[in-house]
Write a structure and sequence with these properties.
The structure is a single chain. This protein is an alpha/beta fold and 323 residues long. It has two domains: 29 residues; 281 residues, Rossmann fold (3-Layer(aba) Sandwich), CATH 3.40.50.1820. The protein is built from twelve helices and nine strands. A nine-stranded mixed β-sheet has the order 1-2-4-3-5-6-7-8-9, with helices on both faces. Strand 3, helix 3 and strand 4 form a beta-alpha-beta unit. Helix 4 crosses helix 5. The protein is globular and about 55 Å long.
């Protein structure tokens, strides 16, 4: 009996060791398979469109023409994967389109181009036109929120509504992140698993733990993308506002600015500036939420999106600030 037990324990240890080694060796394949499976489970299929020098990669579900179109735009250093947690709660209610922005995720990159908010918004406009997107709802986070604000102000005929989650672009109140960058540190650019652990504590109100081997995959991808992200970041910081104030003043579609009160990357005090520029804009501040609400509180964030987009076209809608 003792011999059988020892053999059993030995076999389990061997299986565990082999599984661990395989997971380490094939971690990128396992990660990609997991993402693809998660996307497919809610009806998202990966597609590509060539626009000039850039190949755009994007997810789209099969509800075009059946449900209102909702386009989701991620932030700096992120990808379309950022939207998966929230998309699970919206996949039956919308025709979803979720792109990787140029230089991010699986979309292409040309080092000769400028990647500031103005130029990325122009590229997004070309993307929307190529996909024949008309009268859609647009949601963006951080850098994607800046793109959303610019697009809403310059292409009002294309949108039904706009939602900006912790948007970049209008920054008069400094943040802890800006101070760190001024001191030569950038928590958004990771080199190690320890850096990643810190990022997912720093960017959110309640720490998110990414387990091995997927944390290592995310680090590997970030390191590979580092030269691209350095270029994008340099372009963004060279022209941080990119005429967003003028665009926000021109917004005529129902617009909601949502901000986590615990955001250390872009100070939530900046939210009020949007309503000062355009009193029709609604403001919602979230307790115990940081920089990425769609990841931190995906179900609640989905409810906000669904509720706002559903009522966006109602007559007499007025801006209102909430805390």
């Amino acid at each position: 009996m003792k011999r059988i037990l020892l053999i059993t324990v030995g076999a389990l240890l061997a299986i565990t060791l082999i599984t661990t080694l395989l997971a380490g060796h094939y971690r990128h394949e396992l990660y990609q398979a997991g993402i693809q499976s998660e996307a497919a489970a809610i009806g998202l299929q990966s597609n590509h469109v060539q626009l000039g020098d850039i190949t755009w990669t994007y997810w789209e579900n099969g509800l075009r023409g059946q449900k209102p179109t909702l386009v989701l735009v991620h932030g700096f250093g992120a990808s379309r994967e950022t939207w998966l947690p929230m998309s699970k709660h919206l996949a039956q209610d919308f025709h979803l389109v979720i792109p990787d922005l140029p230089g991010h995720g699986e979309s292409g990159f040309n080092p000769e181009l400028n990647y500031n908010l103005k130029h990325q918004t122009e590229r997004f406009s070309q993307f929307a036109k190529a996909l024949n997107l008309e009268q859609f709802h647009l949601v963006g986070n951080s850098m994607g929120g800046g793109i959303t604000g610019l697009y809403a102000g310059t292409h009002p005929d294309k949108l039904l509504s706009a939602i900006l989650l912790n948007p970049a672009g209008i920054i008069e109140h400094p943040s802890d992140y800006q101070q760190r960058v001024a001191n030569g540190e950038n928590p958004l650019l990771v080199n190690t698993v320890e850096d990643l652990d810190f990022l997912f504590e720093y960017a959110v109100a309640e720490k998110i733990t990414i387990h091995w081997p997927f944390n290592q995959v995310m680090v590997d991808r970030a390191v590979t993308k580092r030269p691209i992200m350095n270029k994008v970041f340099a372009d963004l910081t060279a022209d941080p506002e990119a005429n967003i104030k003028a665009a926000v003043e021109q917004i005529r579609v129902p617009t909601l600015v949502v901000w986590g009160k615990e955001d250390r990357i872009i100070a939530p005090e900046n939210a009020a500036l949007y309503q000062q520029l355009n009193p029709t804009i609604e403001i919602k501040l979230l307790d115990q939420v940081g920089h990425i609400p769609m990841v931190e509180i995906p179900a609640a964030c989905a409810d906000m999106v669904l509720n706002f987009t559903t009522t966006a076209s109602l007559p007499g809608r007025q801006g209102a600030s909430e805390s």
